[in-house]
Amino acid sequence: MLILPKQKIFETLRSAQFIATFTGRSRRDREVSKPVTKMILKTVELNERPHVQLNSYTDTQHFTTNKELTPIALNEMLDAIMAENFMQVHIQTPEQDVYFRVLSKGVKQSSTTPSKKNWEAVTKHNNEKQYLINPDNARILLWQLGICNEKGVLVHAMSAKYKQINHFLSIATKLNVFKQDSISIVDCGCGKAYLSLALYHYLTVIAKKNVHLVGIDTNNDVITFCNSLANKLGYTQARFECTAIDAYNHADSIDVLIALHACDTATDDALHLGMNLHAKAILAAPCCHHYVNEKLRSAQAPPLIAPLLRDGIARERFADLLTDTMRRDILRAYGYSAELIEFVSPEHTMKNIMIRAEKNETYHEPNAELLQLVRMEREQWKAAPKLAEAVGV
C-alpha cells in the first residue's frame, strides 16, 4: 500500500517554521481504528521556547499534544501521524507550500511559492489560536456558547467575550491552587457560566486535572441551561444549583471561589462564603456598588474630599473604589494576600476591577492591625460594604 513519504516530510519540516495539515483518510481506515479525520502539526512558541504541537481531530473532539521542538520529538509525532494512513499533506512554511499526495500510481509532490502576506496571515491565525481556550481545543464548548460556529469559525460579535474568557483563564491559572491535581470550585452568581465552564474545560481536558465545579444562581432558567450544557458536553463533575449565595450549604472546604459580576451585596455574600469555606483562592469581579454609594453623602466626607462627592457620577465611582478597597483589606485581615487588578479593558466597562486573593498557609488568627484599619475606614466615611458587617468589623 502506498503511503506518504515520512523521511521527505521530516526533512521539509525540520528546516523551517511550519504548519502541516494531514487529511484524506479512507473510510475503511477510520472504521477499523480511531476515527481521526485530520491532524495538524505545527511550530508554536510556548513559555518563550519553540515547541512542536500536534492537533488531532475527530468528528466531535479535539486533542492537543505539545513537545519542545527537537528532531526526536518531531520524529515521534510524525510516527503517530503515519500510523493513521493519511493520503495527503499540505505543508506551509515562510518560503513555500509543499504538497504530498498519494495517488494510485505513486506519490505526487509539488510546491508553490506563497506571498509573504499569505504566510503572515496564516501565522497570525495560528498565534491567535494560542489562547488557552480556542476553536482548536474547545470547538464544541465555544460553539454551544455561541462564540464560534459549528465549523470553529469565531463569531465577530462574540470576540469580546472570547477575549474575556481567555484573559480570565490567564489570570486564574497562575494561582498556586491550580498546581494541585484535584480542585474544587464554586462559582457564585454563575449566570450562563461562560467563564467557569471554560475553566473546567481547560483544567479537565487540557491540563488533565480532576475538577469538581458547582455553579449557583437564583435564576432557574440559567441553571437549567447550564446543567443541560454540562450534560451535553460530558462534564460529569460540573453541576449547577438554583439557590441564593447566602443560602448555599456546602459541608466541606473548597479550593477556589469565583464571583464574576455578582450584583452589589451578592459579591459580599460570595466573599463571605469563600472565607467560611476556607477557599484557598478567591476571584471576584464586583458589580453595582449601590450599598456603599447610598450611604455616602458629601456632608459626611472630610472637607477636602467633599467636593468629589457632590456629583452623582463622581460619588458612584468613588463608592466603587472604596467598596473594593475595604473588601480587599478585610480579606487581608483574614489571612488572604488580596489585591485589586484590572479584569477587562475600561473600553468595555467601567466595572473592570477584580479582587484576586490567595490564602496564606501560615494564617491562624485575624490580623488586629488590619481590622483596625477597616474600622478607621468605616468611621471616616460612615459607610462600609456588607462584608464588614458579615465579619463583625
Description:
- The chain is α/β, with parallel strands linked by helices and 393 residues long.
- The protein folds into 2 domains: 125 residues, no CATH class; 235 residues, Rossmann fold, CATH 3.40.50.
- The protein contains 13 helices and 14 strands.
- It has a 7-stranded antiparallel beta sheet, with helices on both faces. A 7-stranded mixed beta sheet has the order 10-9-8-11-12-14-13, with helices on both faces.
- It is elongated, with a radius of gyration of 26 Å.
Short description:
Helices cover 37% and strands 25% of the residues. It is of the alpha/beta class.
Q: Report the β-strand fraction as a percent range.
A: 15-25%
The tally of domains stands at 2
CATH fold-level topology of the largest domain:
Rossmann fold
- Give the SSE string: HEHEEEHEEEHHHEHEHEEHEHHEEHH
N-C termini distance: 78 Å
Uncertain segments are 345-349
Shape: elongated
CATH class of the largest domain: Alpha Beta
Mean pLDDT: 87
Radius of gyration: 26 Å
SS field, number of helical segments: 13
Task: Estimate percent helicity.
Answer: 25-40%
* CATH homologous superfamily assignment of the largest domain: Vaccinia Virus protein VP39
Strand order of the largest sheet: 4-3-2-1-5-6-7
CATH architecture of the largest domain: 3-Layer(aba) Sandwich
Q: Which structural class is indicated by helix and strand composition?
A: alpha/beta
Q: Could you tell me the number of beta strands?
A: 14
Q: Note the main sheet.
A: 7 strands, antiparallel
